[in-house]
Amino acid sequence: MPRAGLDAEVVVRRATELVDAEGVASLSLARVATALGVAAPSLYKHVGGLGDLTDRVALAATRAFGSALAQSSRGLSSRDALESLASAYRGFARERPGMYALAQRGGTGPEWEDAAAALVEEITRALAGYGAGAADVHRIRYVRSALHGFTDLERVGGFRQSASVDETFARLVDALDAELSRPTGEDRAAE
Please, what is the Cα angle at 141 between 140 and 144, to 5 degrees? Predict the structure, then answer.
């Protein structure tokens, strides 16, 4: 009989907390079971093993990341939307480091595919003021790559120079704004 109050949602929620507190490498059935005060085999009543749990946590991570990005830039356009999106992107990586890592690594299955597509849609929507649409995959990738590269380096302690990391981030956003404000190849060809 399953323990009262324990279900798949509770297991995943506790796993997400552990991932943020201790890192993705800490995700194991034994560690989650200990944190929940149960024996590891009892988790199999709620999740289909470590692979299933990892996929569920990756799905939760991708949804949470997408939600944070969506909330950041609603009602904003162009530079304001970019700044807010970039700040939310960096903030999520700082505040939820394990979940950020899992959102980047991804999961499997149609639910995760839908969540990943929704996350990219939020970035696309935020950049729409620059004329970046779903068909403008290169500009979307450019922004995602720049923000991920910066936040990942910051997350692992890669900026050890004495210069302000916040100033560097502001300059990155300036560079993204300048690039997104330039006419695309299609725009130049139409002139």
Answer: 90
Domains of the chain are 8-183 (1.10.357.10)
3-state SS of the chain?
Answer: CCCCCCCHHHHHHHHHHHHHHHCHHHCCHHHHHHHHCCCHHHHHHCCCCHHHHHHHHHHHHHHHHHHHHHHHHCCCCHHHHHHHHHHHHHHHHHHCHHHHHHHHHCCCCHHHHHHHHHHHHHHHHHCHHHCCCCCCHHHHHHHHHHHHHHHHHHHCCCCCCCCCHHHHHHHHHHHHHHHHHCCCHHHHHHC
For residues 65 and 116, the answer to whether their CB atoms sit within 8 Å is no
C-alpha 181/C-alpha 184 separation (Å) is: 9
Which amino acid is located at 39 in the chain?
A: A
Spans of the chain, pLDDT less than 70: 1-4, 134-135, 185-191
Spatial CA neighbour of 158 closest among 149, 145, 170, 167: 149
pLDDT, tens digit, for every residue of 167-187? Answer: 999 999 999 999 999 887 655
| Cα-based angle 137, 165, 104 (whole degrees, multiple of 5) | 40
- Tokens at residue 167, please? 């100033």
